[in-house]
Design goal:
449 residues, FAD/NAD(P)-binding domain, Enolase-like, domain 1, 3 domains
């Protein structure tokens, strides 16, 4: 089949669906393409199912912390029942997304999109030509280029495990490894994280990461730093991981090895050269309006675009709104990435928004730093939380919040207040003078600033 469209969207997550819907409602002929089940990474293979699973670990951790403080009894995770609960969220998504497209009158195609020229994409035997094309097909695990790479399990597969293995190794020290490691360890698995760098979670405050690492090790997770994985082999039903550090090699055994070593834009086989779309290892090169720098018919949103935005669902959604606005009204809107909070859903949670301390120093900003580890504060002590703290950066001459970094219970909610402050130039004095409900985690803000 050959057909012409006003807009072709590659990807059915938030980076693509938002723009597809907005343009269709304005009368455009729109098609969407996805090679995976409709709904995108977040709803099916990422944030949403991950948070459902991780929610169970809160119960385990809370019970363990409160042992000897009035809480008794044994609590365990029934993995099969937990996965069934998780599927109640994910299983309906693809069909629901398809019904949504049908209701709007958006044509949808299942298969891998490949360019044949600047405005034409093939999907299997179908040939689609678009006045505009939006690439929003996300990211994929980075190739490790090691012996035995085919033995690795990926995050989407981990989220579908029918049974949790007893011994698990996570390669890489990022979000995926730490979040899943905390889940697996509290579900009863023996867990090792192998990271080739000097410190993990490099996008987060190093002082708070160090405190979180202490808590990670205390629940039995072995974190091997400056250790590079060189090979994976199978031996008598076990996976044997060969690691190498500065001084020697080391062997680790596991039932499952999970890829947590970063993701890259999912563009390798799309024939972008035929579309005159310039790209780098960071993704599609775009201008300030998220338009390709070399092919004005192509836009990009979310993980697939080479921007300063985090690889997060809300960022992809914002990008998609920006692209839709620029398509419908001409290039005029730019994405704003300056006040986007990011979270690692470990226990305790570690979060960040705005500038890091190193970034503020490199920019020559004069600021004061409020850094403190707070396990003895009431908000931590009442729930027996051993690892909590914050680092708030405040510009001296304006009193504006320029960066906020928090470790601890409910930090993932608390950081949104600081994101609001950064975005709307709310000063530290204004935050401090606000009366918060008490006793809550938010009532700590006055002391934090």
């Amino acid at each position: 089949m050959k057909k012409n469209y006003d807009l072709i969207v590659v990807g059915t997550g938030s980076g693509g669906s938002v723009a597809a819907g907005k343009c269709k409602r304005e009368g455009w002929d729109v098609a969407v393409i996805d090679s995976l089940p409709f709904g995108g990474t977040c709803a099916l293979r990422g944030c949403d199912p991950k948070k459902v699973l991780i929610g169970s670990t809160d119960v385990i951790d809370w019970k363990n912390r409160m042992k000897g403080k009035g809480v008794e009894g044994k609590v365990i995770i029934n993995w099969a029942e937990l996965m069934k609960f998780k599927k109640s969220f994910t299983d309906p998504v693809p069909a629901s997304r398809e019904r949504g497209f049908e209701k709007l009158g958006i044509d949808y195609f299942k298969g891998r999109a490949k360019f044949t020229d600047e405005n034409t994409i093939t999907v299997g035997s179908d040939e689609l030509t678009g006045k505009y094309i939006l690439l929003a097909n996300g990211s994929t695990p980075a190739k490790l280029n090691i012996e035995g790479e085919e033995l690795i399990t990926y995050s989407n597969e981990f989220l579908e495990l029918e049974k949790l293995p007893k011994q698990i190794i996570f390669i890489g020290g990022g979000y995926i490894s730490f979040e899943f490691a905390h889940l697996a360890a509290r579900a009863g698995a023996k867990v090792i994280i192998i990271h080739r760098g000097k410190r993990p979670l490099t996008g987060f405050d190093p002082d708070l990461v160090e405190a979180m690492l202490q808590g990670t090790k205390e629940i039995g997770i072995d974190v091997e730093l400056e250790m590079e994985v060189v090979s994976i082999k199978k031996n008598d039903g076990k996976l044997v991981v060969q690691g190498k550090n500065k001084s020697a090699g080391e062997t680790f055994n596991a039932d499952l090895v999970v890829h947590g070593a970063g993701r890259v834009p999912n563009i390798d086989d799309m024939n972008l050269d035929k579309a005159n779309v310039r790209f780098s290892k960071s993704g599609i090169e775009v201008n300030e309006f998220l338009q390709s720098t070399t092919n004005p018919a192509v836009y990009a949103a979310g993980d697939v675009a080479a921007t300063n935005g985090f690889a997060l669902t809300p960022v992809a959604g914002m990008d998609s709104h920006v692209v839709a606005s620029n398509l419908l009204k001409g290039n005029h809107r730019k994405p704003a990435y300056n006040a986007v909070p990011t979270v690692v859903f470990t226990i305790p949670t570690i979060v960040s928004v705005g500038l890091s301390e190193a970034e503020a120093v490199s920019k020559g900003i004069k600021f004061r730093k409020n850094f403190m580890l707070t396990p003895n504060w009431y908000s931590s002590k009442r729930i027996a939380e051993k690892h909590s703290g914050h680092k708030i950066l405040i510009e001296k001459n304006t009193d504006k919040i320029i960066g906020a970094h928090i470790l601890g219970h409910n930090a993932d909610e608390l950081i949104n207040i600081f994101a609001l402050a950064i975005k709307h130039n709310i000063t530290a004095a204004e935050l401090k003078s606000t009366i918060y409900s008490y006793p809550t985690r938010s009532s700590d803000i006055g002391y934090m600033v």
